[in-house]
């Protein structure tokens, strides 16, 4: 019987809870129960939208996030793994490659 208990725990999900929203206000009160994800993410578009949701920690990588959010060109993000940790407080991780690409594109536009 005790050998089945870990399986039951896995089937219930990670038990992690994250804020879930995608808007321009930066305020978020919706809470999502994560199923297979083991982290929360807070992603901020430069001058725009904020996305908060459950995610897999292995997806907390700039190259993966640019694939997951193709419509957001320049952003900062923060991944964490405790309940409701993506509320917006804390230090964000900048995406210098994306920021550099945005700067280069802006410079190209100004020359045209």
TrEMBL record:
It holds the Pfam family CD59. Keywords: Disulfide bond, Glycoprotein, GPI-anchor, Lipoprotein, Membrane, Signal. InterPro entries: CD59 (IPR056949), LY6_UPA_recep-like (IPR016054), Snake_toxin-like_sf (IPR045860). One of its GO terms (cellular component) is side of membrane. It comes from the Eukaryota. The keyword Electron transport does not apply. SUPFAM superfamilies: Snake toxin-like. SMART domains: LU (SM00134). CDD domains: TFP_LU_ECD_CD59. Interacts with T-cell surface antigen CD2. PANTHER family: CD59 GLYCOPROTEIN, CD59 MOLECULE (CD59 BLOOD GROUP). This is MAC-inhibitory protein. It comes from Nothobranchius furzeri (Turquoise killifish).
